């Protein structure tokens, strides 16, 4: 049995990337540090303490079972002081788990921290049945610590396979300075706009090479020319309709769908350039994330877009967008700020593309061999609000030629702009000082920015409490829970929609 976790010392979040499949951070509960998977597809926090119960924790008589796309956890709801991202909560509800099966545990995680809304929290629902409101999620309590603070989280996911220079980070109420431009991007509403269960947004279209592809939806009341997609950091790959995956992989010479794997298998040197259009913005996906190497076989590559509908929460979304997409985007998840009545506003998402497709092509061929594509351009398709062209890369030689031709005129314009800029800076400083005096938005305890280093978990977590034997990680959703059954279910992902419906039930 592993030794107990070491006492919590540094309050900084230290997320770790395990083989581009799972992202783990440290949280302190009752004075003890636990590594937990960061999961955008669920809302509950649970850990398996080793050994026995936690100090400074109070266990209730309410039992609960949580079921995920793969795996489950059962135990009793407990309360303890917690710290996360440098912010303390004096008393937080969580599930003190006595038995669990989950692939994350084989890679060093002692539990899961859901990053979703209170409306999807089974712990909160169970506590509400007792007449108490003390079951709120950890993120809600972090925000509620001071209602005047911004209620958002923001993070990027580092990759182990791409030498793209993108450093992962996670923060509460703060933005990584490297990605400050995220605040200038569109505020993308969730779907539904008000009181969503999950971090769903509307997808306009997807682009493969130079071909823009329309999308559709099966979600009731959603626009027919959109697809409802769930942003889920707890899922390694992306689950999409069969025709979408065929459009991505079907045109590649030597590619075929392998039914025994449930995935496409294709030549490793085949570069596939994919981009998504969301709210009239283009988000290129790194080609190494579109065709990762198979587990245990570096000579075989598979499609990370899985042609399979998700039986969890049927009718709520069309695509489940996992880490293979989110690694290419810096994402800000805003839960909505508190108004004067203490009610949170409508949530939204802001997304900053991190991938230059030309540079990504160079990185792909540095790893896989072959010749990079030196001119990749994506156009925003008309989705009902006008047509806009977005060029993500240009011909470098042409740009240099034009620059030298118009250099004298450019210098003259720059001199005039410099004068205007000085005036604007002075005016901006005056306005900024006035704004800060009226409406402070910084945290009294700043959210901690921290790097998301690549973890090295050579030893798997094997606990007598979990009964789990280390096994190859299966890159499918581990965080789609929407039910709590009276007995631990068989950990299965396919064709078991009956396990995922309805609100949770507590067991006294």
TrEMBL record:
Keywords: Aspartyl protease, Disulfide bond, Hydrolase, Membrane, Protease, Transmembrane, Transmembrane helix. Residues 441-471, 485-508 are annotated as: Disordered. One of its GO terms (molecular function) is aspartic-type endopeptidase activity. One of its GO terms (biological process) is proteolysis. It comes from the Eukaryota. Disulfide bonds join 268-301. Coiled coil: none annotated. InterPro entries: Aspartic_peptidase_A1, Aspartic_peptidase_AS, Pepsin-like_dom, PEPTIDASE_A1, Peptidase_aspartic_dom_sf. Residues 23-344 form the Peptidase A1 domain. Pfam families: Asp. The chain crosses the membrane at residues 406-433. Belongs to the peptidase A1 family. This is Aspartic peptidase domain-containing protein. It comes from Boletus reticuloceps.
